[in-house]
Amino acid sequence: MKPFVGVTIRQLCQSLTHSTLYASVVGSSSNPGLRDITREAVRTRIAEVAIDLFAQQGFDAVTVEQIAAEVGISARSFHRYFPAKEDAVIGDLVPWGEFVRDALAARPADEPVWDSLHASFEALLAQPNRDEQRSKRTMRVLTSAASLRARNLEKHLLWASLLTPLVQERLAGDLAVLRAQTLVQASLVCFDVALTTWADPDETMDAVELLRQSFATLAPGDPA
Fold first, then answer.
1. What is the DSSP string of the chain?
2. What pLDDT digit, counting tens, does each position of 75-99 carry?
3. Per-residue pLDDT averaged across 44-69, rounded?
4. CATH class of segment(s) 34-85
5. How far apart are CA 62 and CA 137, in angstroms?
6. What are the beta bridge partners of residue 4?
7. What residues have CB less than 8 Å from 130, skipping those under 6 apart?
8. Is 92-218 assigned to CATH 3.10.20.310?
9. pLDDT at residue 14 tops 60
10. What's the pTM value of the predicted model, to 2 decimals?
């Protein structure tokens, strides 16, 4: 098996042990442990290799064994980091959904609900992006296979379950549940459409502006 980019996992872990990052970790019990940091570094590298292979050869054509060989690990080790190859693209959906939920909870109570949802998703897009082109490639891979599109639907359902109760609390009337579900599902569609458009290699507008345009298209005539 080939070590990834000339670096084995053992070497990666050793380099992290001697880094300034390690010094900051051992100095504070509130920070994640070294094992968590090295695990995340390896997990990130596996995902990067997997997405590159998916983009080059097609998602369905690439096997877990092929990804593992390219990284320099066994297929069994791959599954310690990702249950399936879809997970190497999708990642962990829960923390990002919780981020949007917390951003929504922090919005002013008297702000129109649609505006609050927009601001919450925009806060997610404002998070630092180390490699914009890789993120775009990931989005293109995400829409390229049926199994990945199905997993993206799981994201919709998960995030909707986190956001809908907060929206419902801010709505009145017998149809509050229906209206809350509609607003949340519509906001998720706006988010996905903005990112899918942004991932187009010919698109020049940034993701935040595309999100604004997407939300503006469905903005209610009267505040919710």
1. -PPBTTB-HHHHHHHHHTSHHHHHHHT-TTSPPHHHHHHHHHHHHHHHHHHHHHHHH-TTT--HHHHHHHHTS-HHHHHHH-SSHHHHHH--HHHHHHHHHHHHHTS-TTS-HHHHHHHHHHHHHTS--S-HHHHHHHHHHHTSSHHHHHHHHHHHHHHHHHHHHHHHHT--STTHHHHHHHHHHHHHHHHHHHHHHHTSTT--S-HHHHHHHHHHHT--SS--
2. 999 999 999 999 999 887 788 899 9
3. 94
4. mainly alpha
5. 16
6. 7
7. none
8. no
9. no
10. 0.75
54 to 50, 66, 93, 133, 205: CA distances (angstroms): 6, 11, 20, 15, 25
What would the two tokens of residue 151 be? 């997993």
Q: Same fold for the domain at 34-85 and the one at 92-218? A: no
Give the separation between CA 103 and CA 106, rounded to whole angstroms. Answer: 5
Q: Measured between alpha carbons, how far is 118 from 104 in angstroms, rounded to an integer?
A: 9
- Report domain extents, the chain: 34-85, 92-218
The set of residues, in sequence order, having a beta carbon less than 8 Å from that of 49 and lying 6+ positions away, is 4, 67, 70, 71
Name every residue whose Cβ is closer than 8 Å to that of residue 24 and which is 6 or more positions away in sequence.
31
Task: Give me the phi and psi of 175, to 5 degrees please.
Answer: -100, 25
Please list, in sequence order, all residues whose beta carbon lies within 8 angstroms of the beta carbon of residue 192, skipping any fewer than 6 positions away: 152, 156
pLDDT at 180 over 80: yes
Return the structure tokens found at 206. Answer: 């940034």
